[in-house]
Specification:
Elements (H helix, E strand, L loop, with lengths): L6 H16 L30 E3 L12 E3 L5 E6 L3 E6 L6 E6 L3 H7 L9 E6 L4 E6 L4 E6 L6 E5 L11 E2 L17 E3 L6 E6 L4 E6 L2 E6 L9 E2 L8 E6 L5 E5 L8 E10 L5 E9 L9 E2 L9 E6 L5 E5 L4 E5 L4 E3 L6 H6 L9 E5 L5 E5 L4 E4 L3
Antiparallel strand pairs: 1-27, 2-3, 3-4, 4-5, 6-7, 7-8, 8-9, 10-14, 11-12, 12-13, 13-14, 15-19, 16-17, 17-18, 18-19, 20-24, 21-22, 22-23, 23-24, 25-26, 26-27
Length: 387
């Protein structure tokens, strides 16, 4: 016969289970001074109607999965491009200055060392620290490190190099027990300012948010299936999460493109310590959108609708910007929670004459001086939004 569990032990177990479902104090999410990954840069000032200006690129060529990031220590953009190239773009002067950091063929040679012969394809890019960029490699489902100053200096940073997507927590690197990702399209990387680094990853194919820290990869939320649910992190589900940014209120903002009908929302995650039962303490909540694919203005949870939101970015004043990729409209969530379409007199006008082509792939970045840039990866056009 099974021994009786003492009453105090049983109560302790029940309390631990309740805490694992949603308790625990939030861990600080520190903005990264080296890169503009959220809670940084000034608020934008628009005079509607305002039309973005195309910026002439010199040699850089984008693909559907190209992405954009901004340095935090200079008026400098980083972009991933065709033939698995990475470039820096100095936007401090009247004329752009482009410098290739990763040349065509370099990533292919790295993949070949792991027996992968398929052509490489780069997605997200982010500034890890003063010396290093992180780049998402879609063919091998891995993250690569790229030196910011020495061309063609790169290596595997996290994930098992494998052309077949997977979903497993484990070691970031090494010879065994490595973590697996599913990078079916370009998503987002969000390094924090901690030492050693902590990097949040939008694992888009697994409909999950992961974190790389202390040499290992762990799942924050999401279960591999496209669904919607708010609540404890263990009970949180996403649909095609592609965007991440740090808010100034100690939260991680996630945008859901919603390829399976459950997304079209901005969500926020409050992340606490690791739970002894697996996963993390904390919870999720919806910031804006009700799941309807539309671009409408109004209070975040009582009227504002989003259409395939991508590339969110939070300023130091608490405003949140993103692009409704379904309609091609730049969106803003003000500090009072109201969502609008800041480049147009109203959202109906914006939808009728969008600033960017509807249905395209976009990346959004703000430089330290507060200049907002949009990369239309589909049409290979860089737009300067702020005059």
């Amino acid at each position: 016969m099974r021994a009786a569990i003492p009453c105090l032990v049983l109560l302790a177990l029940l309390a631990a289970c309740r805490n694992a479902d949603g308790g625990g104090s939030a861990a600080a999410l520190v903005p990264n001074a080296a890169g503009m990954n959220g809670c940084s840069g000034p608020a934008q000032v628009f005079t509607a109607p305002q039309t973005p200006a195309a910026v002439a690129l010199l040699t850089f060529a984008a693909t559907e999965n190209s992405a954009l990031a901004a340095a935090g220590d200079a008026e400098l953009l980083y972009a991933t491009g065709a033939n698995a190239t990475v470039v820096s773009i100095d936007v401090s002067g009247a004329t752009l200055v482009e410098e290739e950091l990763v040349s065509a063929g370099t990533v292919a040679a790295l993949l070949a060392l792991s027996g992968i012969a398929d052509p490489p394809e780069l997605g997200a890019v982010a500034v890890l620290d003063l010396d290093t960029l992180l780049v998402q490699e879609l063919t091998s489902n891995t993250l690569l490190s790229v030196d910011r100053t020495t061309p063609n200096t790169l290596g595997f940073w996290a994930g098992e190099p494998n052309p077949v997507p997977g979903f497993a927590d484990g070691a970031a690197t090494g010879s065994a027990g490595r973590a697996r990702f599913s990078f079916t399209e370009s998503s987002a990387l969000c390094p924090t300012g901690e030492t050693p680094p902590r990097v949040f990853v939008a694992d888009v194919g697994n409909h999950a948010v992961r974190v790389v820290a202390d040499g290992s990869v762990s799942t924050i939320a999401g279960g591999g299936t496209a669904l919607f649910n708010d609540g404890s992190l263990a009970q949180t589900f996403f649909d095609t999460p592609t965007g991440l940014t740090l808010s100034c209120s100690n939260g991680l903002v996630v945008s859901e493109r919603g390829a399976n009908g459950f997304g079209h929302r901005l969500r926020t995650l409050t992340i606490g310590a690791a739970s002894p039962f697996g996963g993390f303490f904390g919870d999720s909540a919806t910031l804006a959108g009700d799941g309807t694919a539309a671009t409408t203005a109004g209070p975040s949870l009582a009227g504002a609708e989003l259409d395939a939101p991508v590339a969110p970015f939070a300023t130091s004043t608490g405003e949140l910007y993103w692009i409704d990729s379904g309609t091609g409209v730049l969106r803003r969530r003000a500090t009072n929670g109201t969502c609008d379409c800041p480049l147009a007199v109203d959202c109906a006008t914006a939808v009728g004459a969008p600033e960017f082509p509807a249905g395209h792939r976009f990346a959004l970045a703000e430089t330290p001086a507060g200049v907002l840039y949009v990369l239309d990866a589909t049409d290979d056009v860089l737009w300067r939004v702020t005059p």
